[in-house]
Amino acid sequence: MFKTLSASRQYRNQRSVTKILEWSASRGHPAVDGLSAFDMDDFLSQYANRPATRFDMRSMWNMLFDTAIYARWIKESPLPKGKWKTPKPREVAVWTSEDVQRYADQAKRMRQPGLAALIVTMMEIGQRLGDMRTAQWGREFLGDRFVIRQSKTGKLVNIPVPQWLRDLLLSVRIDGSPFVFNDFDKQTGFTPYRLMTRFEEVRHALSQDGDKKLELRVLRHSCVCRLMEAGLSAAEIAGITGHLLARVHSILERYYPDRWGMAQRGMMRAHIAGGADPESFGQLKPLPIQDWLGDSARSQIYESPQYTERNVERLLAAKTGQHRSRATLAAIGPFMAGDHGIHDAA
What we know:
By secondary structure, the protein is mainly alpha-helical. The chain folds into 2 domains: 7-88 and 302-336, no CATH class; 97-274 and 286-295, Intergrase catalytic core (hpI Integrase, Chain A, Orthogonal Bundle), CATH 1.10.443.10. The protein has 14 helices and 6 strands. The longest helix is centred in the N-terminal third of the chain and has 20 residues, at 7-26. It is globular, with a radius of gyration of 25 Å.
């Protein structure tokens, strides 16, 4: 079973298909068996300074050529052979409780208490930004808890919240708006654009040269780190945020900064649990914080799955966000249609 792709991923896939079809139309829809490596360089050169978009476009071309090979329209892909590197993952800064307080205070000074409440709440319960932006009274927020059907996975989370957070959310409620978090300039819920604009204004007011660049979406992962620091187990964290257990571990591996401190506290707890005097553990020299895995310094190598007679339609369906191959093939039909000169001998 393939997981449902996020709306963002489906949009990017559809955008890639649209751009390829537009490029093909501008050249009179050349036959797929007439495309060359020069044509691919010509197309991809449009995205030379946008590595992530170039990666998406090349992925879609790979899918199209793999399908054409499977259908025996072409014998080989004109894209260069071998492995190719994904763009390096962007460095992201994890929010601390102090960061949340600074940004919330600044948002309130800029007459955006709804944004302040959103920042605080996301750090507390770690939900996706899109789900929180559209949360409504009596639907996702029931007065004492958030009950959210997560948009990406469909997983239902039920999160009781403390009284202080209930009071905070009630204090920023706007009469006539169903939304929990509102743009106080418009007196209604945030659109994606307005939310990013309001946040950029707050960040610009606080940022100085050399400061880490905080992003709203990273509050979800920052919450995982905060809950770990508070002593919650991975299962308890997953219950709150809705992550899979394996995902909780991968987030902590990448973002949690104080692994040495966790090891120290863990060994101390194990020492005391055995009945030993805490003082008998001995003195410890402080060690600098470091990233054990060095993920940020590594580049990832992507190898596309091989299409076979059994999986071609399912892979295409999953990668383009469609779970019925008929819908997937309809999307790429204008490009693939026609006599391409290579036919099945059968």
